Amino acid sequence: MKQTKDQYRPLLEFGLDESEADAYLALVNLGRATIKELQAAVQDVRNWSYSQTYHILKKLLRVGVAEQQKGFEDTFTPLSPGQLFEQLRARKWERYAELEQELTENYERATAECGACTAQVNHFHFSTLELGFKILADRFISATQKSIHLISAPPSLFRRLQWALASAHERGVSIDVYYSKWDFEELPDYAATIQQYCRTYRTKLIRHQYRTHDPIAVNDEYTRQGLILLDRSTFISVPFFRYREDSLTGTVEHGIDYLEGFYKATGIGHNILEQLTENPILEEKDLIPVQEAQLMELVRLHSPLPKHELAAQLNVSGTELKSLLERLERAGQIRVEKVPKGRGRPADIVVLG
């Protein structure tokens, strides 16, 4: 199964690596396939084992370009090319829109009278949650480069943004969650509630003594407001109902149907984080994805550990291991070093950071 560069290029732009692109293109040609059928279809370009083929398929499932059908022997079908390219075109237009906005602001500053025009802070408002979360994930979080701060964020926010936050984590973005038991008095254990949605990415939980956010505008018996701060400059408010008493059905949780915030508002971002420093910290906890925790434990017990042995013990592909190591190396948890051998290229070994 030979692929052309023209077939690869858009799939790589979509975010797939070459192995994932081979698997997707093979599924397109097969229409539907079991793990063994896919393994056989790519054998002329990819010498995958059964387990490697399965791991590649799992990654396609996670990014939404394949679906799994349960049965005596599970089968997999690809996302239709039409849907995939529609998403790709939408992403490109969003990037063009961001570039247009940036260049327009630069042009207006440069051509203003006396060259003294100041860039205005952009306020945005989304009239429905569906629209707001879609743009929040596809435009704002996908463009985040360094940090995401979630402050008094309701569990529904983590549920809705699972894929976007996991993708940010893959790029090396740090994700910090600030909360207090007074933010969610109706939840006996906020950390345990959100943990089910944070299993695929590293999260730092920071529990404060007092409420982490409590604006007067929505602070009443029923409502609260959560915050999202992206790269310390883009600020999103997330109002939500804490509960509503219903005599027939009991306590019911609801969401308010709008999102709003400010784009490139570094001053607001600074003030938000400054206020948090005045709120005493009671506990800090790292939520670490299972694969990362297993890798760290293997390195701790057997350091220095060659990369090929690490991949074999974790049962992951070379591409997946590379992604894991890059994230942990950026975080300062491990180091990848080259050790000279008698002949050939130096061996890559992994040691604690």
Task: Give the full name of the CATH homologous superfamily of the largest domain.
Answer: Endonuclease Chain A
Please outline the major beta sheet.
Answer: 8 strands, mixed
What does the average pLDDT come to? 79
Q: Poorly predicted ranges (pLDDT <50, ≥5 residues)?
A: 112-121
Task: Give the class-level CATH name of the largest domain.
Answer: Alpha Beta
User: Outline, from the CA principal axes?
Assistant: globular
Tell me the number of helical segments per DSSP (H or I, 4 or more residues long): 13
Tally of discrete structural domains: 4
| CATH architecture descriptor text of the largest domain | 2-Layer Sandwich
Can you tag this structure with a few keywords?
single chain, 353 residues, alpha+beta, Arc Repressor Mutant, subunit A, Endonuclease, Chain A, 4 domains, 8-stranded mixed sheet, 3-stranded antiparallel sheet, 15 strands, 22% strand, globular
